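Study this one:
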Amino acid sequence: MHPAISTQLPIDCRIFPRCRSADGIRGLVLLLCSLCASGPVAGAAPVSAADLIARAQAGSAWDQLNLGAAYDHGRAGFPLDPVRAVAWYRRAAEAGLAEAQFNLAHCLTTGNGTPRDDAEALAWMLKAAAQDLTSAQYLAGVMLLEGIGGAADRERAMDWLERAAVNGNSDAASLLRRLRDDDPVDQDR
């Protein structure tokens, strides 16, 4: 059986998969996804692997996310299994958990554990962004700006980037400044 899960895999955390490849702006999106990883949440109690599996199977979205992350990273005694990771991320994403929607979008963009599908990735990223997940707002903006998952839409991209900047994402604020410097029409915003 699996050993007890340590605080390296807390109950209430967001673990985002590492990027596996990079090409152009897709590389930027993948790199940014990998940089969004967060560490253990202070005070999170360890849980056994059996408890995590049982709670995930019972429908706990956070436990589904963490079980997906355990398979995604091959941690806490779980084998590295990207296909299982995607299945658990999808269950948590469908339950409405923004962090799982973000992880699922990342897997769909990289093709890690699932066939690559940029259109579906953008749809999940937008769902996470709509729930005020700042990293998802930023990446939704980048995806829309570059036309990843659909036609490029600068107006919608700028909206998501502005939301991310207002929520404290310094990368979004920096990108907005660069975009406005390159486009005199946007300088009055």
About this structure: The domain at 24-188 is CATH 1.25.40.10 (Serine Threonine Protein Phosphatase 5, Tetratricopeptide repeat). Residues 1-44 have pLDDT under 50 and may be disordered. The CA atoms of residues 136 and 176 lie 16 Å apart. DSSP finds nine helices and no strands in the chain.
